[in-house]
Structures are given as structure tokens and as C-alpha cells.
User: Which sequence fits this backbone?
């Protein structure tokens, strides 16, 4: 009888730990305010409203999944680095938090064909992600905020 009680207690502790792991990110907010990386700026005349703005080769607005739980808002921009290469910049970004959210460049709104840019640095604010050299943005032109452990989409932005 004592062994049964120990087994039930062990299962309860494991289930509680799993529930805490899954739920804890929903109660924390992480704001990231990364500065603009060294990117090509608009070549406008001084005083122009576009002067001093980074030149985005592609951009899109995030759309949440609309289920009342998982959401993402803000702008995704592909910026050209001055020394070559590209960076994905999330601006005025907000996502509901979740465990192990990743930033993907994907062929669509699934994780079947994607390039993983890494774990989301924060669920709020401006942040930068290096795009690996050779990434085909005509193929991987959708930015996803993806919960890797549970395979859940939080939001997407179509780059155009």
C-alpha cells in the first residue's frame, strides 16, 4: 500500500512540474530593446521624413492566430547589413508568452519547411535575428512565432 502511495505522489509531482513548465511563461513578460544593427539607411535628403530610416527589402505585419490565447503583433522587416548579409528585425513587437518560442522563416504557416533563427529573445520590444547566408526569402517568406515543444503557431507575418 505504501508503494502505491509513493507512486501516486511521484506521478503527481511530475505532472505538477510539467504543468508549471508549460504555464510559467504565461505569467512573465520579457521586453527587449535592441538597437538597430549596422544596416543600410535610406538615401533621402536631410529633413525628409524617410531620412535616417533603415532600408527594408521586405516587411510584413504580424497576425495572431485568433484563438484568444496565442497572439503576435508588430512589424517584421528584412534589413540589409552594410557589410553584407541580412537581419530580421521585429519592431513594436508583442506576443503572448509561451514555452520555448522560436522565430522561423517558413514556406507557409506550418513548421514543415523552415529556417530556425533561434529562440525569441523577448515577448515585447524591438529585436534582431541574423538571417543565415543563402536563405531563400522567396521560398521562406513567412515569419513565424512558433512554440517548439507543443508545435503551436502564435502568429505570422508575410514578407513582401
Assistant:
Amino acid at each position: 500500500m505504501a508503494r502505491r502511495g509513493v507512486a501516486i505522489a511521484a506521478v503527481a509531482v511530475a505532472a505538477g512540474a510539467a504543468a508549471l513548465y508549460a504555464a510559467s511563461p504565461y505569467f512573465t513578460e520579457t521586453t527587449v530593446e535592441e538597437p538597430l544593427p549596422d544596416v543600410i539607411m535610406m538615401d533621402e535628403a536631410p529633413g525628409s521624413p524617410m531620412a535616417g530610416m533603415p532600408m527594408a527589402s521586405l516587411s510584413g505585419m504580424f497576425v495572431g492566430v485568433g484563438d484568444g490565447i496565442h497572439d503576435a503583433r508588430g512589424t517584421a522587416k528584412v534589413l540589409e547589413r552594410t557589410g553584407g548579409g541580412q537581419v530580421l528585425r521585429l519592431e513594436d513587437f508583442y506576443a503572448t508568452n509561451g514555452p520555448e518560442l522560436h522565430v522561423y522563416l517558413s514556406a507557409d504557416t506550418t513548421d514543415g519547411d523552415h529556417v530556425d533563427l533561434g529562440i525569441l529573445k523577448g515577448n515585447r520590444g524591438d529585436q534582431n535575428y541574423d538571417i543565415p547566408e543563402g536563405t531563400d526569402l522567396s521560398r521562406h517568406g513567412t515569419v513565424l512565432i512558433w512554440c517548439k515543444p507543443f508545435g503551436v503557431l502564435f502568429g505570422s507575418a508575410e514578407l513582401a
The longest strand covers residues 86-95. DSSP finds one helix and nine strands in the chain. The longest helix spans residues 2-23.
